[in-house]
Amino acid sequence: MSAEHIYPLADKAAREVDPMILANALDHIAKSAAASRTSTRRLRWIERRALIALKGEDYSDTAFDLPKSAGPNTHEKLQRRMAYHIAIKHELLDRLRALEAVAAESLDQRPEFRLAVQAATESIMNAEQSLSSESLRLPEANGGEA
Length: 146
Fold this sequence. Notes:
Elements: H1 8-16, H2 19-34, H3 41-55, H4 74-106, H5 113-134
Helix pairs in contact: 2-3, 4-5
């Protein structure tokens, strides 16, 4: 009984496909990743991974930064980060409401607070809309910033 290879497609290609075809494909992948209009962590990883294979070196994921979704517990990290930012929004919303209350009490005594109250009210409304829509969205696990 033979053990199944960890990369069955690569194992089959190594046994059945002309090595020059594989080398050309790796070279094309590396060049395409390098020539991309936007340089992302994932594209840099793809380019380096292909170049390492072309050199015939063993792959080690500790040699460079992996794409974000390739690391362990990525979903949990994104959820914690999202919760942190939502908590900050709630804190800012509370502070804006406090400013609105202070400014509203001072309107009779100092008319210049009227603009501050209007700005705070608009900010509160925007923050409330953002918080309600934030809970409906899930962040992308892309290499971009969340």
